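We close this part of the discussion by returning to an individual protein. In the encoding step, the backbone of a single protein was reduced to a row of integers, each denoting a local shape. The sequence in question and its structure tokens are set out directly beneath this paragraph.
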Amino acid sequence: MTKFNPVIEDNPTIGKENLESMQPIIFQSKGKKLIGTLFKVSGTERKPIVFLLHGFPGNEKNSDIAHAIKRFGFNVIIFHYRGSWGSEGDFSISNSLEDLYSAIDYINKPDVASSLNIDATNIILIGHSFGAFLAFLTSIKYPQIKNIASLSGFNFGFFTDYIIQNPQFLDVTMDELSQGAMLLKGTSGEKIYNEMLLNKDEWNLLKLIPELKKKNILLVGAEYDYVAPLEIHHHPMVEGLKQVGAKFKSEVYKSGHSFSSSRIKLTTEIINWLKNLK
């Protein structure tokens, strides 16, 4: 049991022999080198692993949340999808999904799990925006993953249908995709939107809600989110999860898409959610 508040306090039990640490992590996805950071808990006991998944293009990496989760006692990995932030290859939504699969398969290797003190039987996915979308789809592929947190989650399939039905929003959408693509390798706003059109049915999270029924889900939205508006991305998920009787918690903060004005509140929410998983 944690005897201190990991959101605002350092671990008072840390000594020279059991330091917390950060270390680079490198693995392959479809032959391309992906890079990231492991936020490693102290000691030698195997602890759960949280994949903290950044959005598109990923300006907010959520390292502050990663440090708090580490202080709480869970390992954390933040990694960068192909074509983003120094990882090799070209960015695409499909590639990013495969990259998360590769990350999970990597930490499931017995030698990796052992050397990093990771309990690979206890994987938790926490995603921001695009990262939340990846988390939901991946939890379906890996049914052993039961716990998912969505922070300003983005529903790419439902949003694509919305744009088709409301073409007056296409230009602003293309502008936003193009601006994000400028920070990534091997892509463009047009490429990303075409990929969304091609996969809109498979990527509509509302259609996958029956498969999420047995998951434990945290949904945090932002009232002033103009990237992933509540009416399109948050409220429909809440209603869908209610209808199937899923176990979930929903919160909406007076904040924007990246929760820049609610970091302590958001981190506290996540830590309290993780406490209930122990």
